[in-house]
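DATA SHEET
Item: assembly model
Revision: 1
Owner: S.N.
Input lines:
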Amino acid sequence: MASARSYTVKRFPWPLLVLLAALFVPALGSRFYTFLANDIIIWALFATSLNLLVGYTGLVSFGHAAYFGIGAYTTGILMKRAALPFLLAFPAAAVLAGAFALVFGTFCVRLTRIYFAMLTLAFAQIVWAICFKWNEVTGGEQGMPEVPYPDLAWMGSLPVLRDLRTSDHFYLLTVLLVALCLWILHRIVRSPFGRMLTTIRENAERAEFIGVHVRRYELAAFVLAGAFAGLAGGLFGIFNRGVFPDFAYWTKSSEVLIMTLLGGMGTFWGPSVGALALILLNQQIVSYTEYWPFVLGIILVVLLFGFPGGLAGAAELLGRRLSRPRRA
Amino acid sequence: MFLFLIAAGLSLIFGVLRVLNFAHGTFYMLGAYATFQLVQWLGVSGGRFWLTALGGALAIAALGGLVEWFLFRRLYGKDELYQLLFTYALALILGDTAKMLWGTQQKSVSRPPELTSAFHLFGATIPTYNLFIILLGPAIALTFWLVLQRTRVGRFIRAAALDRETLGALGINVDALYTGVFVLASFLGGLGGALISPMRAITPGMDTEVIVEAFVVVVIGGLGSFWGTFLGALIYGQVLSFGILFFPRFSIFAVFALMAAVLMVRPWGLLGRPLK
């Protein structure tokens, strides 16, 4: 339909441009902008990992925060208690979150639709309950404050970056790591494996008929989504200067689900746009009123009734409307 | 036992409308606030408490009806995710509205004077009001079960849970029936909140707390199953209290573990029926 338009859009290296722009945020010199950008970028990775499940495979997980939380605690505990370097503690978040996703996912993918959502929620609440009560390891209700920054002295020794703060250095690291993760996720989605996930979303029965082991594919998607959520969590724990049990609470799961929906499910960049839009909006609105949940609820209702495709869907619709007269 | 009231409403909506209503906990909270407001105006003496509790529950029922009539019915047949998120949005909006109206301070309602006494049983002191709630739960359960089993409307509701289209083809106004079910479920939620108000402080945030509990109850017992919900509420209470007795720190964990275990073995719950 809109092939001419999407061609120009595709030819233009948008992701690279965004990456470059993101790298220049600390140059603005504002601690607040860097903080905001860092927040957005980590949530973008979290939302994109969820999109692999919800958008591409058609599995509605209501407990994705569990893996975010597990990743955050893994990196946090390893860096604070065991004083391991970031280079080890960060991949460990993916490994552990992925391992939990493998165990939980094995049970979850046997169920369909609403039962799947409920079991993911139940597992997430189990993770939350453990984080909340296991004082010796997770710090319990108080959480675990003062997770150290990774050692980024090498960045300070580079000529251009010398004048930046530690938080700026960490921000640059986050940008590069998230860009790498998103690139990998993009490759996964575009690979034959990713195509098969979309086939399963469209018609799981037919996929089964042509000889696809549907559950195994779904499980693989579940583990991958969990692992990347874990990475996002690992970064967030450091960014947030602490890890707290509410990272794994079900309201976090719904928050990331809303971002994914706002941006547009099933489109690759949709969730990132959703994270950007929601966090910026939150910043704006919180300065006017304390009733952010109220506004969020209204946005959600408008979205559900007016733009079920999210921002990406709305943009596509607009693009199609605009391109029609030209073709006629 | 009040948890049963709330869970029964949640289960009813799921059984008939096939929707998990996240806003149900908010209805419960609003029921408590509405009762508080009415008590402020009317007082609790001379049997007025019962009037205010009923008034609170009816107000919530009306609210539920409005929501269903104007918004919710547009989402039937759509993706579950949209329905789920709509009820979540509703919970956010209504929860914040309550915060705007009543503030973040704790509110409390005094017990009705008829039931302020307490009596002693096995060395423990039990307020009469709590005993009253314990007895009221099964009474309401029985009433609703009889309505569902023995009356014409009850038959329609059960039929709608099984096959909506056939029922519509038989000349039943299914839209009105759905609204009725939503109103009834909201009433149960509101009543739960109204009756709990003399026992617990009313605070914003009691909605998200209770919805998770009610959710666990219906999942264990079986979504859409009436006696299942009853059983689920009993099991939940036992696991939580014995859990606190034996492993004080892991009782919440035990509850969720039980929920997960039920979902793994019988996803439709102990007494539920699998969905087609």
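QC remark: Chain B is about 70% helix and 5% strand.
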